[in-house]
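re the bet — no i am not wrong, look at it urself. input seq straight from the record:
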Amino acid sequence: MQVEPFIATLPTTSGLQKIQTGDLNWTAEDTEKQTTPGYYWHELTLNGQHQWRLVAAWATTPATVTTITPAPLNTVLYTRQPVIEMLIDDWVGHFDRELEVTTPDNITHRLWQVTDLDVQADITDVMTNVTPRQTWLTTAPTPLISLVTDTEWTKFTEPLATPAHLIDRAD
């Protein structure tokens, strides 16, 4: 997969409150454009169980992908990549957490922005040789994708959704 870092818009304090309450009436004051491109580690937690995802942008025109759950942010499965898991373990603690919010369905979402150029290059390089699984619903392309390994995906019997406006592409 050809993926790259991107400039995101993330919720402001008022946007986080709307995610917490399920309020879908968003205004310009509810999001803020980030200044630095990055990849994002996305941790989803439900009942003490964690799932990790990598949020990335397509490096070229978005492809029509095979996704798990059709949504504004396509979720794509791929075979476990030890380098990505190593990067999560080694680097997440080095970056500031951008946000944490719990949705009305009791799923806690945490995002870390990966801004280090060497780490970004490593992620881009590793993902180049990864082929997404082709066993799910094919859907229209989205500017961002949420990549999750097979082993992470199986942690939950029902798919965990990413709330609208949690992260969007600004550039």
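see?? The CA atoms of residues 52 and 85 lie 9 Å apart. told u. also The longest helix spans residues 117-128. so pay up
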